[in-house]
Each structure stands twice: as C-alpha cells, then as structure tokens.
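Weekly sync, protein design subgroup
Attendees: M.S., D.O., the rotation student, P.L. (late)

Item 1: inverse folding check
M.S. brought a backbone from last month's batch and wanted to see whether the design step gives back something sensible before we order anything. D.O. pointed out we never logged the input encoding, so this time it goes straight into the notes. Structure tokens as presented (301 positions):
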C-alpha cells in the first residue's frame, strides 16, 4: 500500500439521518464530487458508519456529515504516512467549523476511515458498557489521528430542534472526561472545557442559535447536576422524543426561562462561569476568536 493517501482517490460517503438541510448539502457535495455515495437513515452511529464501510469500494473512505458544506480544497489533500510517522492502520479527522459559534475542532469535521477499522470498532450503541471511552465517541482509539486543518463548515441551525440537538450533544460530550462523568469539571481536558463554555454562550447572532445555547446548557447540566444516564445522548429517537415533550409547544418566553435556568444551574452547582451574550456579543466573539491547535494528550492518559 502506498504511503501517500490521496483524498480524491477514496470513496466519499455522505452520511445523513434526518437533517433538514441534508438534501441541499448532498447536492452541494455532488456538485464537487459527482461520484459521492450516500448512507441515509441508519439508526445508531456505530451501525451507520459500518453501513458507510459496506458502501465503500476503497479501503479508505471519507465520511461527510449531512449538516456539512465541504471546502473543495479538501479534495486536493494528501496524507503522507511516512512524514507523520503513522501506519496504514491509522484513521484521520480534520477540524470542522461550527457555523453557530465559530469553534473549529472534530465536531462535524471530515473523517477518513479504513473499512477494517470501522468494521472492528465497538462504539456508541455497539460499545461495551464498561468501556466509557466508546459510549458516545469514536476518538479515543490509539489509531485515531487528528489534524488541525479545517475543510468544512457545519450548519446545525436549520431548525430550532436541529440547533438544540447539536448543542445538547456537545454540552454532554464536552463536559465528560474521556467519555466518563467527573465530579470535578476542572479535570476535563482544557480545550474541551473551553469549547463547552463557548457552546453554552455563543450563537445568539444566527438563526436558531439560542436553541443551540439552550441545548448545550441543558446537556451539560443534566450530565453534571443530575443522575441522568448521559449515554442517551447517542440515541436520536430519545432526543426527538425529549424535544417534543419539553419544547415542541413551548413559547419563546418559556425557552428563554430554561436558558437562564440551566445557566444558573451550571454557575451555582458546577462553578462554570458562562455569560449571557446578546447578538452583538456573539458576533464580537467570532470576530476575535482564534482556534487553538488540537493538542493530543498522551495515549495512556
């Protein structure tokens, strides 16, 4: 196998579930790579990625999440394994830019997998309940390599529910210590802790952005201030039912009250200093924000 992997030579698989902007984004992807394939509606993140592996005719394949718009420059990327000191067993993740709050990290980013890796992994709904690292994430495997480069932007705010769900999921995941609950949020990896603060604060300047803030605060508070089972965050049907029960018929005033309630919960019980930014404050943050390089901790930490 060549030690230089060209993105353009790999199968590109568009992965969608119920995203309201999926058709538009798939059309955009096909305008750039007309041969892009698609996996749609598979329940469970582990099962959905295995469906992508089954769809791929190349050993390496790229997944594009359905809320993403891909920079055409990505298809010019080459990965030199020798220069990186890696092996063909490694898989790769690039930064994704979150439209709502300007963050750039693995959330929504483009991924290049091997069929072997995906078929052997046990994550999310297929994980061992005693292995917290795999309950809600992919990224803790030693062969998972993270790049700092950004080649996509995720638009998770097409509807109030989509925005809330995206925020809720990150509010949960960014407040965990390598996939596990912690009694001290100070033990959370500092980059994830900072991302949690941003998710809970920034976004009032874009359509439905306040629902993303609501979701992030709610997810973090439920994870850290209650005995709620945070592994539910991986179940999209659970999240849909939760939204319908709590927010589908709620007024804007009631949703604002919840934003403030969960903000106070996090400040008082978890000592998280999050602000209430107006649209101008959110725009200002995104103007001056500089993405910190994605620093990989020791594999044994």
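Designed sequence read out in the meeting:
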């Amino acid at each position: 196998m060549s030690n230089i992997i060209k993105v353009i030579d790999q199968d590109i698989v568009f992965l969608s579930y119920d995203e309201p902007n999926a058709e538009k984004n798939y059309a955009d992807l096909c305008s750039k790579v007309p041969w892009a394939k698609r996996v749609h509606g598979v329940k469970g993140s582990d099962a959905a990625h295995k469906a992508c592996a089954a769809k791929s005719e190349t050993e390496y394949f790229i997944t594009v999440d359905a809320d993403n718009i891909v920079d055409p420059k990505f298809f010019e990327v080459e990965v030199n394994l020798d220069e990186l000191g890696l092996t063909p067993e490694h898989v790769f993740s690039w930064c994704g830019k979150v439209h709502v709050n300007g963050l750039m990290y693995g959330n929504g980013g483009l991924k290049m997998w091997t069929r072997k890796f995906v078929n052997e992994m046990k994550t999310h709904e297929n994980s061992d309940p005693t292995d917290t690292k795999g309950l809600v994430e992919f990224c803790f495997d030693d062969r998972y390599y993270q790049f700092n480069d950004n080649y996509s932007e995720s638009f998770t705010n097409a509807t109030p529910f989509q925005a809330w769900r995206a925020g809720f999921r990150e509010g949960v995941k960014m407040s965990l210590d390598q996939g596990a609950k912690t009694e001290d949020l100070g033990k959370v990896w500092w980059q994830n802790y900072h991302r949690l603060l941003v998710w809970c604060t920034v976004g009032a300047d874009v359509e439905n952005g306040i629902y993303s803030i609501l979701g992030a605060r709610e997810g973090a508070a439920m994870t850290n201030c209650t005995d709620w089972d945070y592994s539910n965050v991986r179940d999209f049907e659970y999240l849909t039912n939760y939204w319908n029960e709590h927010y589908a018929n709620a007024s804007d005033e009631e949703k604002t009250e919840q934003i403030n309630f969960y903000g106070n919960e996090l400040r008082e019980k978890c000592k998280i200093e999050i602000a209430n930014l107006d649209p101008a404050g959110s725009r200002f943050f995104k103007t001056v924000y500089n993405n910190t390089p994605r620093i990989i901790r020791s594999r044994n930490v």
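Discussion: The chain has two domains: 9-154, 160-288. DSSP finds ten helices and ten strands in the chain.
Action: P.L. to compare against the previous round before Friday.
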